[in-house]
Amino acid sequence: MLAVGVLSSVNVASLTQSEIRDIILGMEISAPSQQRQQIAEIEKQTKEQSQLTATTTRTVNKHGDEIITTTLSNYETQAFSSKTEWRVRAISATNLHLRTNHIYVASDDIKEAGYTYILPKNVLKKFIVISDLRAQISGYIYGSSPADNPQVKEIRCVVMPPQWGTHQSVNLPHTLPNHEYLKDLEPLGWMHTQPNELPQLSPHDITTHARIMSDNPAWDGEKTIVITCSF
Known about the structure:
The chain has about 230 residues and is α/β, with parallel strands linked by helices. It folds into two domains: about 1-50, no CATH class; about 90-230, 3-Layer(aba) Sandwich (Cytidine Deaminase, domain 2), CATH 3.40.140.10. Helix content is about 25%, strand content about 20%. It is built from six helices and nine strands; from the N terminus they run αααββαβαβββββαβ. The strands form three sheets. It has a five-stranded mixed beta sheet with strand order 3-5-4-8-9. A hairpin with a 5-residue loop joins strand 1 and strand 2 (about 65-70). It is elongated.
């Protein structure tokens, strides 16, 4: 190998394993080139990655406790990043009460012979204040009719069951709430928030309403409605 290196003006110590094998098989070698240097760097990186390197990191949490962490692989040192910043959303949600100063009700395609629903502003305001700008929340609405006008439905309360939602939909349990406070009230449907105003009900709203009506005979198709609140 030394004789071959002298004849070809090549440093034998810088030869890679693949080049040494090629020389033994009779292949001619040339002076160092850019391609050979790149091959050598790749082999060097592969060898370094096969060796575990311990990295010790010291951090301090909000309570002042010192945390010392030792990692051996690269993926353990990567920082988690979320697509949505919860701090910004939490601060923005504290200003939702300002949006209740101007409330607009869509009154298109209203039937004169249908039921009239009255939603108190204090109930609507409370529902908006506890909402989120991205994740949808929902609740079942209950109410009753005045003694002199059965065509008017006054919404008395909003019951919020355990639920989970995204910016596109909200998922409710199959079982309706049952409480003594609701025994004198009739179910009038459900309402939920959404980040954007839509010209019509979304397919998820229609299927959810149909599922609830199918699972619960107490829901009257003529009286139960879906209310969407966009902000």
